[in-house]
Amino acid sequence: MRQKAGQLIPVAPTAVEIRDHFWAPRLRVNRRIALFHQYRMLERTGHLEALRLAWKPGDPNPPHIFWESDTAKWLEAACLSLATHTDAKLQGLVDQVIALLAGAQGKDGYLNAHFTVVEPGKRFTNLRDNHELYCAGHLIEAGVAHFQATGDSTLLNVVRRYADYIDSTFGPGPDQRRGYPGHEEIELALVKLYRATREARYLHLAKFFLDQRGQTPNFFIAEAKTRGETTAPSFAPAYYQAHIPVRRQKEAVGHAVRAMYLYAGMADVAAETGDVALHAACQRLWANVTTCKMYVTGGIGARHEGEAFGENYELPNLTAYAETCAAIGLVLLAHRMIRLEPISQYADVLERALYNGVLAGVSCDGREYFYVNPLASLGRHHRQPWYGCACCPPNLARLLAGLGGYIYSVAPGALYVHLFIGGSARLELDGQRVQFTQETRYPYAGTVDFTIRTARPAHFVLCLRLPDWCRGDYGLAINGRQTRPAAHQGYLHLERTWSDGDQVRLDLPMPVERMVADPRVADAANCVALQRGPLVYCLEQADHDVDIHTLRLSDRAKIRARTDARRLGGTVVLEGSAYSQRHAALYAPLGRPSKVRSTHFRAVPYHLWDNRQPGAMRVWLPRAF
Amino acid sequence: MRQKAGQLIPVAPTAVEIRDHFWAPRLRVNRRIALFHQYRMLERTGHLEALRLAWKPGDPNPPHIFWESDTAKWLEAACLSLATHTDAKLQGLVDQVIALLAGAQGKDGYLNAHFTVVEPGKRFTNLRDNHELYCAGHLIEAGVAHFQATGDSTLLNVVRRYADYIDSTFGPGPDQRRGYPGHEEIELALVKLYRATREARYLHLAKFFLDQRGQTPNFFIAEAKTRGETTAPSFAPAYYQAHIPVRRQKEAVGHAVRAMYLYAGMADVAAETGDVALHAACQRLWANVTTCKMYVTGGIGARHEGEAFGENYELPNLTAYAETCAAIGLVLLAHRMIRLEPISQYADVLERALYNGVLAGVSCDGREYFYVNPLASLGRHHRQPWYGCACCPPNLARLLAGLGGYIYSVAPGALYVHLFIGGSARLELDGQRVQFTQETRYPYAGTVDFTIRTARPAHFVLCLRLPDWCRGDYGLAINGRQTRPAAHQGYLHLERTWSDGDQVRLDLPMPVERMVADPRVADAANCVALQRGPLVYCLEQADHDVDIHTLRLSDRAKIRARTDARRLGGTVVLEGSAYSQRHAALYAPLGRPSKVRSTHFRAVPYHLWDNRQPGAMRVWLPRAF
What we know:
The structure is a homodimer.
Chain A: E1 9-10, E2 16-18, H1 23-44, H2 67-84, H3 88-104, H4 113-118, H5 132-150, H6 154-169, H7 186-197, H8 200-212, H9 219-226, H10 256-273, H11 276-292, H12 324-340, H13 344-358, E3 376-377, H14 392-401, E4 408-411, E5 414-417, E6 423-429, E7 432-440, E8 447-454, E9 458-465, E10 475-478, E11 481-482, E12 487-488, E13 491-498, E14 502-507, E15 512-517, E16 527-532, E17 535-540, E18 551-552, E19 559-564, E20 571-582, E21 587-589, E22 595-605, E23 617-618, E24 620-622
Parallel strand pairs in A: 5-9
Antiparallel strand pairs in A: 1-4, 2-6, 3-23, 4-5, 6-7, 7-8, 8-14, 9-13, 10-11, 10-14, 12-13, 15-16, 16-17, 16-24, 17-22, 17-23, 18-20, 19-20, 20-22
């Protein structure tokens, strides 16, 4: 059965201008600081030099198997940036990197420096571990982004040649291989390439990789035998989501980033093919992730070991892994789930991850990054300028550079607003041009003013997401007149013939909420996490005299939200009274006198933590008895 | 300055007979099942065959660098067992293993199969990683145990030759090396050897290893350079407690087992030399471990990474490492701290670790072992019959086989009772023979009856530990007459001229206590751990219909202790009412209706968990609001 009708097409980032107090400064830092900082790091670590293929045995610093993925993500980020903001210097760097990539490509289209100069005989001999197809996927995404940003098909042609080579190598044909990547990514990239070129082969190859995955006999086990491997592999097939066919998967397992990229690819193929079983698998896996395996910050992948999902409700705070790339992967998946079905929970989760787990990944100055995102720290966890495995920094850069693409979708006769971000979008709704603007202090204030500019009246349904954090007591007015439309799957539907200058005001009260977790989350038992609007808050030692880990919060304590224009570059802090508790011994019977003193606390948005002097942090705060 | 006077000399296990309801059956399982099971595993894994030195390059299963330590710990356990319980079959196995060890020894005294047949050129080239001195220490302990158990000096002579070889290799002399072991153990072993032989060289060598440790320039860094090592080591010197000289160490850091063995060796050398600075360092490190880095079970070493201590109060439950060997190491250290100072907190911690963190390491049937001891489980953590790194099983076996040695100490004119374990001890107090017996249902009941048998009246102080879990409302009677002696540093001092047949009854009420942790232990916030007497309890899924992780315990709920003669081989369970809490969503605002239902809970001693069908477990129980 097929179901392609009713899909929501995302409005491209090139059609969206972000112009607000919150994101615009961050995107500026991303464009002007982070992209150049990252380029320098790619240069310094030898990522770019590697593409000259000059490395010889005995030389230091051999090209690593997945360096192309870092370079490609940076390139994609730079292209997305150039698509909305011209920058001659950045353009120059992009052109250089593209030239290097083109020069590193083999005559047959293959493109991976490591397997060209370091282990030339080992090409595609270990799909389980060697990341070639993962790198290829990122190169393809970069090629599409470059083409869409500039109209120049130089890089697109390079990656098409590589995709064609892969397509000739893998497939159901008699001389083709039945394998699939140990680190998924190429599936979603091939759908992007298909969408950019309308070349059906790429979609078929994406579907082929998905269909092969987890079949019996297991490809990775057979492949290891072929290599003559005698030692047991570090991970079982479930680590690679290759334990059973994808359509039968129900629980998110294994490496969290790989899982997200796989599910995103599944959603993409489902969107293009109308494959109901694939869509249903996505829905099941989404439900498992977001109701059993997600931190309140939108972080996922609780375990350090294998950067992997734990069991349901296994969500430790101090030892949370919650890789930045995994939260980004959740955004990518949510974005694709929205395309398949306009249900607000997808955008709710997207927003939770974006404003918390993802945004925490980069420092305010754009020069330091978190790879791991715990929900509590004793003071030794800090952002780093770079990582040996540098997947997260350029992944953040490309997400931010393409942020405009996550705000809106259109469907026949409908405009969906998923995120409340000030700026404007140039839309085509049923062939008619509409300019749509948002003005808001979101996420610090819940009032959003929408304005419609259109040459002639346009009839469409304006669908505004009612966020999950809103308890329902919102206000909505069209041209100053209050209205209370029905909500459909979490979206307020305003159907009308819109005229030029029509204004809509959405008023979302933003009280401070004490969030509690499902009681099965052992590590959040009897604790609350403070949330206001989409922002999850945390305590930092920098704002406190007493050890923040001794603080207890009364359920009745009034918590005040206050704009603090100077702290952390300007933010809204939460303040109130709390108790600081001390015991005489490490363990003592309940009821033995323990010193309690009343004190004040100040919470700051989680995404802003670790931007001052080093210190402890915690999200989940014990309730006071 | 020297301070040797006033030391407490432990009563040897050979002078103690354990005859009770709790330990005696476990020690029987240890003697009759565990020791033979472990011997078979040593045989099956090639530990014993390795000692024939028949391995050749190309052969499978090369002898591992630390196999001798496993074999030696087993041998020590077997000898301790033979010292109190003859067993011809076990004696035969011991003789065989000793013959193998003697045969594997080089002409120069060196004894390590790996560096004899696998990497013969690498002897003592990597003290940081290669465990040769660690293995040597365990061999020495086995040699002393064998001599003390049997009077036979065969193995003692073997290990003396090895110790002499090491003594000639390491030292301050012009042709000697200044190194020290990456895994401590030989220090405490050399003191044992010194005590058994009165050969001062061994004590000096122990002191030399301690004194060299952490000096600048760092030996491990220099040694790595000598080897021409170019890759960075996995761990910094602090992992090996080699970051600063031992006398200046204040915080327990790095690998927890190594730390315990080091501190134990420091305490031993302090006891023999009266080195006040060394003793003070032990006191500081002890205080740090037991007030900031110890689980309520007596487990230590919170982190999986490096099997290491975390920061102060970093005590996660689900991901606790708490290696069995580390809890054993804490017992070993406590035992030595008692020798230096009769303060009850040492025995309090010894008891906490012994009855909880250590004893959990072995299944009731003696055939399965925990290496890692979390304080919460989602159901997938289970004991294994053996481990690739098999340090814990024989370590448990030797601790249990020598348990009698931890109960009593004597000092001039004084008998100290540290543990309440039924049985009898043959003592010499100021030259007079005394037989001292305990009868008790401890740890399930707090009444202990002591009887003194002596040919003629004997004047001494009987010092009974008043456990930290006792709130002070104890009863004490001599020959039926209540008395209330002063407590000195946690010991009740009964000074009198004791006559044959004198009886003392100590009555320790054992209410169920709800223990709370220092508020800085983030992962125990707003939770209680149930404890009764020395036993820490846990909930197991096997005793509950509802998910135990949803349970909340009211502070007011009455908790009943009930003897359950059938459950888990007979134990005392704790029962009461609790709430099971459910939420509609993974995260929701506090106050949104959540389903609560009243239910019952049953807690079992932590050391007995995972002896039934697999399932979830937790120690820290959230309090109900």
